[in-house]
């Protein structure tokens, strides 16, 4: 497993060099953020794509104070910080950034990028997802996105190529589902620290390579021994998306003797449970898959109870002993959901720990963070 992860890590880092070379060769570069953007269709119009989701590190405040407020969440500040410090190598060469309008913090970042002269395509994703007009609005936003992408690339979308791209994505999702079955074992051979990296690699590494490596990994792990101790508490990890680089909390959990057997985040299990239908109107199929068929993400309301029922099912299916709720500082909507979860988990007898991150992982802040996780893991062991 280590060799496969190492190879994928090297390939994901090489992606930046590949994109810079593609730009020199005249290929349009289009960045996107979020899972409501069909990058399979963007690539089918002749562009190279790159996911904007880098976090996990605090930016020097002085680098962003002229552009963003201190009480924006750390992912938004981090994204702006990387750009201002010259550590974002793709945004300056991008021909277009396609951004889903679901998160007000990220929306402010894209507005600042627009102010700085970067071309932006905003895809409206109504969070009041139950109203029929909401889906129609989202689908129409995607149609406008396709038109703008075609204008940027100078080419029409090759829908046969898009169908091929979605078929590969469906295959990758099927392999992730096989990995998740292995996580149900009494002592899983893989934890969230590796799984979340694999999900991030899948957004950056060539799809054919990703399929080959995931196939190899599943075959290797099917006969592999457990990675954890037999008494390791089993945890469901829920809440905010884990940005690329934001691996401290999952790693601490597993270093301190727990195993994260399932996740309910923007990425991970929630996203790969259902495939995009390949017959008919691909754009409408993608919209239906993301907006109607997939469990609504945390920003969608009213869906708190629906998400908690999903978490309860994960706890049952993966035989979890506890729940860890993860959110970023200043994410009010996640705070509100956590309040509901606190009550429901208490009523159901599921131990829960809330962790809030500001990406501040200095020696001084790591002490209290480590202590809280150690105490939570110890309490779960006592309760087993």
Q: What is the strand tally?
A: 8
Helix content: 40-55%
Structural class by sheet pairing and helices: alpha/beta
Number of helices, where a helix is a run of at least 4 consecutive DSSP H or I residues: 14
Kindly provide the name of the CATH class of the domain at 15-156: Alpha Beta
- CATH architecture descriptor text of the domain at 15-156: 3-Layer(aba) Sandwich
Oligomer classification: single chain
How far is it from the N-terminal to the C-terminal residue, by CA?
29 Å
And the CATH topology of the domain at 15-156? Answer: Rossmann fold
Q: Globular, elongated, flat, extended or rod-shaped: what is the shape?
A: globular
Unreliable stretches: none
Radius of gyration: 20 Å
- Strand order in space, largest sheet: 2-1-3-4
Q: What is the string of SSEs from the N terminus onward?
A: HEHEHEHEHHHHEHEHHHEHEH
């Amino acid at each position: 497993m280590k060799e496969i992860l190492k190879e994928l890590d090297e390939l994901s880092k090489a992606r930046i060099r590949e994109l810079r070379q593609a730009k020199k060769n005249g290929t349009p570069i289009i960045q996107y953020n979020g899972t409501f953007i069909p990058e399979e269709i963007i690539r089918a119009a002749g562009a190279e794509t790159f996911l904007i989701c880098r976090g996990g590190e605090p930016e020097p405040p002085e680098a962003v104070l002229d552009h963003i407020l201190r009480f924006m969440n750390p992912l938004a500040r981090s994204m702006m910080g990387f750009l201002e410090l010259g550590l974002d190598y793709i945004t300056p060469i991008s021909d277009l950034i396609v951004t889903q309008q679901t998160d007000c913090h990220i929306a402010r970042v894209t507005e600042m990028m627009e102010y700085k002269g970067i071309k932006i395509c905003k895809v409206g994703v109504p969070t009041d997802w139950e109203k029929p007009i909401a889906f129609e609005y989202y689908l129409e936003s995607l149609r406008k996105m396709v038109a703008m992408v075609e204008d940027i690339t100078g080419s029409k979308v090759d829908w046969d190529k898009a169908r091929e791209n979605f078929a590969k994505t469906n295959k990758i999702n099927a392999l992730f589902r096989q990995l998740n079955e292995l996580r149900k074992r009494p002592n899983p051979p893989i934890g969230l620290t590796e799984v979340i990296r694999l999900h991030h690699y899948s957004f950056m590494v060539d799809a054919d390579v990703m399929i080959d490596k995931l196939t190899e990994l599943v075959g290797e792990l099917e006969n592999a021994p457990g990675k954890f101790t037999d008494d390791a508490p089993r945890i469901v990890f829920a809440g905010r998306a884990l940005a690329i680089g934001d691996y401290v909390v999952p790693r601490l959990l597993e270093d301190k003797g727990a195993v994260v057997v399932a996740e309910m985040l923007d990425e991970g299990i929630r996203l790969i449970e259902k495939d995009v239908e390949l017959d008919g109107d691909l754009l409408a199929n993608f919209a239906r898959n993301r907006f109607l068929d997939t469990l609504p993400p945390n920003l969608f309301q009213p869906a708190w109870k629906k998400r908690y029922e999903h978490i309860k099912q994960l706890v049952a299916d993966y035989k979890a002993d506890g729940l860890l709720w993860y959110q970023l500082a200043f994410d009010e909507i996640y705070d509100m959901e956590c309040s509901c979860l606190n009550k429901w988990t208490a009523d159901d007898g599921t131990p829960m720990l809330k962790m809030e991150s500001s990406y501040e992982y200095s020696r001084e802040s790591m002490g209290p963070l480590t202590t809280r996780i150690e105490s939570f893991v110890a309490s779960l062991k006592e309760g087993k």
